[in-house]
Amino acid sequence: MTCLRRTLRIGVALILAVFAVALGAGAQSVNPPGWMSRDEIVSAFVGQQLSGIYPSRIPWQEHVRSDGTTTYREGGAQREGRWWMRGDQFCFSYALPQSGGCFLVVAVGRNCYELYAVGRGGGAEPPSPNAQRHWNGRMWRADIPATCEDKPIV
Question: What is the model's pTM?
Answer without folding.
Answer: 0.69
